[in-house]
Amino acid sequence: MSSAPVAPLGDGLGAHVLVLNKLYMAIRVIPARRAFSLLVRDAAEVIAVDDGQYANYDFCSWMELSELRRQFEPDRHDWVRTVRMEIAVPRIIRLIGYDRLPDQRVKLNRRNLFARDRNRCQYCGHFYPTNELSIDHVIPRSQGGPDTWENLVCACVRCNAKKGGRTPEQARMRLVAKPVRPRRSPLITVKLGHDKYASWKAFLDEAYWSVELR
Predict the structure, then answer these.
(1) In angstroms, rounded to a whole number, what is the distance separating the alpha carbons of residues 22 and 153?
(2) Which residues contact 207 (CB under 8 A, 6 or more apart)?
(3) What is the pLDDT of residues 122-132, one digit of tens each?
(4) CA distances (Å), 117 to each of 162, 175, 206, in order?
(5) pTM over 0.85
(6) Mind listing the pLDDT tens digit for each residue in 116-165?
(7) Which of 37, 23, 44 is nearest to 93 (CA)?
(8) Does some domain include residue 206?
(9) Would you tell me how many other CB atoms lie within 10 Å of the CB of residue 111?
């Protein structure tokens, strides 16, 4: 069976896929579209986890297995259509020729800050859409506050304006939680709350690995 390119016709392309290096160490999470591109080029293989056991599949074998899964367990997977068939989106892939170690640092950026605080204003405690939140320096820059995980929090527009260029104590405001540096990507923690990503846990050690979303 030839490795035909995947046509972007299914909702499954919005799913995320955990990437392992050659040594089965988690290194990043990528969109399903990117994962299929790697599989088609034989740069990666699928790792399927069932009942604590895992098996390796090349792209052709995974397409064949997808036909059976479509018949017997369609609700367990996200799906992408090709010209000829529907293919299950793998939850995990392994890069065949990549043995570099994962970067243990979590990038300090707006997306990860929102994920760490779960879109919750750290002053009033209410949850907001991303476009209604801002990033606040707990100790303002004007008072020497740094750009660090421990000094940055999500704040709604109203609370940010109320606090202004003051510390919480000066503004008589309280933080909902003390800001800390996450041990791994906050987005990974969010994903692990969904049953469909439960298989990732077999390759994620909470005490050590920080997986970066790209």
Answers:
(1) 37
(2) 183
(3) 999 999 999 99
(4) 20, 12, 18
(5) no
(6) 999 999 999 999 999 999 999 999 999 999 999 999 999 999 999 999 99
(7) 44
(8) yes
(9) 13
Tokens 């640092």 sit on residue = 105
Give the residues across from 47 on adjacent strands.
56, 92
Tally of structural domains, the chain: 2
Q: 127 and 165: one domain? A: yes
Identify the residue whose tokens are 């040594």. 23
Q: What are the residue ranges of helices labelled H in the chain?
A: 32-40, 59-72, 110-116, 157-163, 168-171, 186-191
CATH number at 155 reads 1.10.30.50
Residues 18 and 95 in one domain: yes
Pairwise CA distance, residues 165 & 79, whole Å: 49
**Six-digit token pair at 141?**
């820059």
The domain of 17 spans 11-103+186-213
Tally of CB atoms within 10 A around 21: 18
